[in-house]
Write a structure and sequence with these properties.
Length: about 60
């Protein structure tokens, strides 16, 4: 089963500039290497929530399904 990245097109666009730390990028890359799909999904969502907070985005602006 694959995961799908989604974002709220009313809040951000593909051209939006977001603040993403090196630690966030590291965590995203590491999350993709988690073998358990449920755990991988949970970790990816956690990292994306951190990015949303840092950019003052509303909950659910970006996520994975």
């Amino acid at each position: 089963m694959s995961m799908c990245f989604h974002y709220d097109r009313n809040t951000i666009t593909t051209q939006s500039e977001l603040k993403v730390s090196v630690a966030d990028l590291r965590d995203l890359v590491q999350a993709f290497n988690i073998p358990n799909e449920g755990q991988r999904h949970q970790e990816l969502q956690c990292v994306l929530e951190s990015i949303m907070r840092k950019n003052c985005l509303k909950p659910g602006a970006i996520g994975v399904e």
